[in-house]
Amino acid sequence: MKRKSVNLLAGRAWQTSLFPLSWMEIPKFNLIKYLNKGGLPAIYESAEYHEELSAYVNLYLKEEIKNEALTRNVPAFAEFLDLIALSNGQEINYESFSRDLQTSPNTLKNYIEILNDTLLGFALPGYTKTKKRKATSRAKYYLFDLGVTNVLCQRGVLKKKSELFGKAFEHFIILEIRAFLSYSRKHIDMSYWRSTSQMEVDIIIGNEVAIEIKATELAQDKHFKGLHALKEEKLIKKYITVSLDKTKRVTKDGILILPWELFLKKLWKEEII
After folding, report:
1. What share of the chain is helix, strand, coil (3-state, %, to 5)?
2. pLDDT for the residue numbered 242
3. How far is CA 26 from CA 45, 48, 53, 87, in A?
4. What is the DSSP string of 207-238?
5. Which stretches of 72-194 are DSSP H helices?
6. For 29-60, how does the pLDDT look when each residue is reduced to its tens digit (9 = 90+)?
7. Is the pLDDT of residue 217 over 60?
8. pLDDT value at position 73?
9. What is the mean pLDDT of the chain?
10. Paired residues of 141 in beta bridges
11. Which of 9, 92, 99, 248 is the most buried (most CB within 10 A)?
């Protein structure tokens, strides 16, 4: 529509987004199944989900970009897609990416804009309001669906207690928060925090809540280091750890530990924010 200069009805139409299926839209939700297949409706229930995802990536994502003339160098864009998937949830270093792709930083920025415009990915900017600890301003980047990310990364089947499972679990919770904020029309920014001393909090929603995501069945003090450090700044109202714990707990200094399903129930009931 933008390319054809269609009237986008600025000021006369609301903008909304449609995301892959979320936790609240899937009866009898299965976490392992979702982390492996993702939330694209036709793929989630498919017995041949890996073939379906491969076809989606190769026939739609890459060819559709070419057909829409969004980039002339499709092989380079395909290589970029693979690299951005492997770096999913990590900080974007334009200089390093450019060297790996043997392209210019401007071309790389153009590729990222293509992902943003086609709703295939989104950036999570750095939270930089802290004063006691200097924070990074680099953004992290996430793709829009777990299944697509898995295929681009050639991950294979994800299993509990693996490092890749932990990364996918974090990605899943962030996607749920993003969908919730959009569907509930809450125009609140998402960000993450990382200090130059490598303290980190996975996601911050406005100045309301800071959330650490851990794929562990027993969240312990070592998992709260980032939240403890951020809490010293007294900038955020609530601090939560989302984990695979079976029961809800509260630490002595007020960090709330929530099992992931309870967190999502509270999130979609608007009890988190």
Report:
1. 40, 15, 45
2. 98
3. 11, 19, 19, 28
4. TTEEEEE---SS--GGGGHHHHHHHTT---SE
5. 74-86, 94-101, 105-117, 146-153, 163-183
6. 999 999 999 999 999 999 999 999 999 888 77
7. yes
8. 73
9. 91
10. 123
11. 92
Q: Could you identify the residue written with the tokens 């630490």?
A: 251
Residues 6+ away with beta carbon under 8 Å from 108:
80, 94, 97, 98, 101
The pLDDT assigned to 6 comes to 67
Q: What CA–CA distances, in Å, run from 171 to 71, 142, 143, 202?
A: 28, 8, 9, 10
Whether the predicted pLDDT of 223 surpasses 70 = yes
Give me the residue label for tokens 């010293």: 232
Dihedral sign for Cα atoms in the order 212, 204, 240, 132: positive
Q: Tally Cβ neighbours within 10 Å of residue 232.
A: 10
Distance CA 209, CA 122 (A): 20
Sign of CA pseudo-dihedral 139, 245, 272, 41: positive
Distance CA 104, CA 195 (A): 28
Output the pTM of the full model. Answer: 0.93
